[in-house]
Amino acid sequence: MHLVILVLTNIATPGEYLEVLSSVARAFSEQEVIAKVAQLPTPEQVWEFFDKGTGSLPPFITAADMMATDFLTLQHNDKIAKAIDYFNRYKVTEVPILDDDGDLVGVVAEQDVLKLGLPEHILWLEDMRPLLRFEPFGEILKKEQQIYLAEIMTDRFVSVQEKTPAIQVARELVRRDVKQVFVVRGKKLVGIITLSNLLGRILRG
């Protein structure tokens, strides 16, 4: 059962559009409600449902209204080989890491894996000629089944609670210079807001 809902708002006030979407999403969070509205026989009854049944608009848009709930995760006791497979297969640049209790404890990025094959001093060398035959990728392949993600992941990530105002999420993205923010319920990861998704929702709907 499907419903098609057309929302018309002023292009200069995207916040109103997002507030309406949030209200509609809450109203149709259950399949039974969707089926009930789809079977209403007259436009007047449909209007009455929206007039009385959807409730008032929220006071502000929250992280929960903006987040994507379909996302990849890895476990802290996974080997780095699995992270490499994720980077290659799903074309992501970083993946959140969960512990045995399902709590968000870190994030692993492509750069974290690449660093495994590079001696620390190489990052400071100006003259790379003595190392042109060095094989960093061979070093990574040697280690990919030996090292746990817990050993290379970073805990320097940005997280917000579900009810955090969207404007605060936007501020964190800019202030912390990150591409995504993790949305948590307590310590449990429930969603991800990427910079591109946030801009798309706000500026393009």
**Architecture of the largest domain in CATH?**
Roll
Tell me what portion of residues adopts beta-strand conformation.
Answer: 5-15%
How many helical elements? 9
The CATH superfamily of the largest domain turns out to be CBS-domain
- Number of DSSP strands? 6
List unreliable stretches of 5+ residues: none
Termini, distance in Å? Answer: 23 Å
* CATH T-level fold name of the largest domain: CBS-domain
Q: Biggest β-sheet: count, sense, barrel?
A: 3 strands, mixed
Overall geometry comes to elongated
Structure summary:
The protein has helices at residues 14-27, 31-38, 43-52, 63-66, 80-90, 110-115, 136-143, 166-175, 195-204; strands spanning 74-75, 94-98, 104-109, 159-161, 180-185, 188-194. It is of the alpha/beta class and 205 residues long.
Overview of the molecule:
- By secondary structure, the chain is of the alpha/beta class.
- It has two domains: 1-59, no CATH class; 74-204, Roll (CBS-domain), CATH 3.10.580.
- Helices cover 40% and strands 14% of the residues.
- The protein contains nine helices and six strands.
- A three-stranded mixed β-sheet has the order 1-2-3. A three-stranded mixed β-sheet has the order 4-5-6.
- The radius of gyration is 23 Å and the shape is elongated.
